[in-house]
Amino acid sequence: MLQPLTNPIYARLFSAQVIALVGTGLTTVALALQAYALAGESAGQVLGTALAIKMVAYVILAPIAGGLAPAVPRRAFLIALDLARAAIVVCLLFVTEVWQIYLLIFLLQACSAGFTPVFQATIPDILKEEKEYTKALSLSRLAYDLESVVSPVIAAIALAFVSFNALFAANSVAFLISAILVFSTTLPVSAASIRHRGAFSQITFGLRAYLRTPRLRGLLAMSMAVAAAGAMVIVNTVVVVRTTLGLGEPETALLLAVFGGGSMAAALIMPRVLEHLDDRTVMLAGGWTMMAALFCGTTLPGFEAMAILWFLIGFGYSATLLPAGRLLRRSSSESDRTAFFAAQFAFSHGCFLVTYPLAGWLGVSYGLVAAFAVLGAIVLLSTLTAYVIWPMRDPAALDHVHSGFDHAHLHIHDEHHQHEHEGWEGPEPHAHPHSHRPLRHRHAFVIDEHHPDWPSQARTL
Predict the structure, then answer these.
(1) What is the pTM for the complete model shown?
(2) What angle separates helix 337-366 from helix 98-126, to the nearest 10 degrees?
(3) Chain segment 380-405, per-residue pLDDT in tens
(4) Buried b (16+ CB within 10 A) or exposed e, 120-149
C-alpha cells in the first residue's frame, strides 16, 4: 500500500493532498459555527445552500477548467489555485453577512473545481505502473476517509483553546503548505494536445468524449449509485440515530465512523482484489452491496444492525469509487487526461446535486422507510444500467477503420502522423495542413481527435 510513497514526487503531492484535506475539514466545522453565529436556527438552511453552491460550482466549472488547463503549465496552475484558495479562506474571517458566505464558498469551490481534476490527472503520469497507481488510489481513498474522522477531532481540541475563526486561518496555512510542496516538486510535462479547435469545443471535449466511451457511461451510472447511497448516509444518519433509534450525538458520530471504517476496509484490500478481478466486476459488486444494505434498512433495525448496514454501504461505496481512476486512465490519451478527469468530477458531483436534496426531502416528507426504499431503487437501477451498457468484454485494443480526410492541428510524429518535413514547419509540436489516408488497424482505443466515435463492432461485444 505504501509503495507509491517511495516515489518522491508522488510523496510530496500526496502530502500536499492530505494537508489540504485536513485544512478543508477544519473549515467545514468552522463554517457550521459561523453560519450559526450569523443565522441562528436557520444555520442548517445556510449550510444546505452553501453545499448546493459547492456542487453547482463543481458541475459547471470543472469541465471549463479541464478543457483549458492543458494550455497552462501544471505546476503553475496548481500553485496559483492553492494560493487563491488560501486567500479566499482568509476572507471568511471577515464575513458579516450570509450572502458573503455564499460568494466566498462559490469562489473557493471554483478553485477546487480547477485544482482537483488537474491534480488527479497528474498522478497517472507520475505512477506509470497500474499496480502502483491502484495503490495510490487506495491511499487517496484512505486519506479522504481519515480526514472525515481526524479533522473534527482536531477541530474539537482546537476549539477548546481558540475561536472558530482560527480554524479558517489554519486552513489558509494548509493551502499555503500545499502550494509550497507543489512548488518544490518537478511535475512531468503534460503531453501536447492535438486538439486544435475553438474554446467551446475544448471545454466540452471531455464531456463528449466521456459519454462516447461505453465503459465510462457505465462509470457514470455507478456514480449515480454511489451518490444515492452516500446521500442516504450523509443526509439522514442524524435522523436515523436521533429520531428513529432515539439515541444521541455520540451514536451519530459512531455510525458515521462505521461508514468510514467500511470505506477504509475496502480501500485496504482493493489493490489485491483488483489483481484478480476486473474493474467492472468489482464496481458492480459494490453497487449490489450498497443496494442490499439500503433495502435492509427499510426494516429500521436496531443500532447494532444499522451499524452493520452502514459498514456495508461504506465498503460498497469505496469499492465502487476506487477503480474510477483506472477507468479514466485507460480511456484517455495522456494529452487529454485532464479533460476526462474533469468530466468525471462534474458528472459525479452532478449526481450528488440530485441525490442530496432528494434524500432530505424523502426523509422529511415520507419518512425514512421511503428514503431507504427509493434510494435503494436508484442504486439498483443504476447498477443494472451499468451492467447493460458496460460491455462484459472490454478489451483495451480494438480494430477500427479510419476514413481518409484532410485537416490541420497541433501535432507531433506518432502512429497517425508520419511525414517528411519541408523545413518551414518549425520544431515539434507544430501545425500545418496534412492528409490522413484510409486505414484499418488495431491499438489501445480512446476517444480523441482522430477517433471521435467508438467502433461500431465493439458496441456489440
Answers:
(1) 0.85
(2) 140
(3) 999 999 999 999 887 766 666 666 66
(4) bbbbbbbbeeeebbbbbbbbbbbbbbbbbe
